[in-house]
Amino acid sequence: MPVMKGLLAPQNTFLDTIATRFDGTHSNFVLGNAQVQSLYPIVYCSDGFCELSGFARAELMQRSCACHFLYGTETSAQLIGEIQVALDERREFKTEVVFYKKGGERARERDGERVREREGWEWIAEG
User: Fold this and answer.
1) Which residue stretches of 28-99 are H helix?
2) 87 burial class (0-12, 13-18, 19+ CB within 10 angstroms)?
3) Long-range contacts of range 85-93, CB-CB < 8 Å, 24 or more positions apart?
4) What predicted TM-score, i.e. pTM, was given to this entire model?
5) How far apart are the C-alpha atoms of 99 and 15, rounded to whole Å?
């Protein structure tokens, strides 16, 4: 089985399928490990996500897939809590959120539907 660059989890079919199918297709996403409650560490990040966020892959791995490190002054505190609750309850949650790149520059706002249609952000937590 080929080794996926940036994948920090026991190899399984689900992660391999997601990473292989979507990386390199202008999809910007992270995969989080839902087995590690409260942190949900990133176990995979696409090249596009690294480019869009301004972070190197090594800087992203094992950080929370809730992407706390991308929040800034205009990111709603209420929304931050709702994202964490959705992860804790392992349920789908679609919203618009303000993210900031590594250098502090405001990133584009996208909602869940647009993420799949164009460049944007996506959270996938594997349970």
Assistant:
1) 47-53, 57-60, 77-88
2) buried
3) 87/32, 87/34, 87/40, 87/123, 87/125, 88/37, 88/38, 90/34, 90/125, 90/127
4) 0.70
5) 25
Instruction: Name residue, tokens 């942190």.
Output: 39
Which residue in this structure is represented by tokens 């164009």?
118
Give dist(CA 93, CA 112) in Å, integer.
8
> Is the separation of the CB atoms in 70 and 122 below 8 Å?
no
Does the pLDDT at position 59 exceed 90? yes
d(CA 113, CA 91): 16
Spatial distance between the Cα atoms of 100 and 71, rounded to a whole number of angstroms:
6
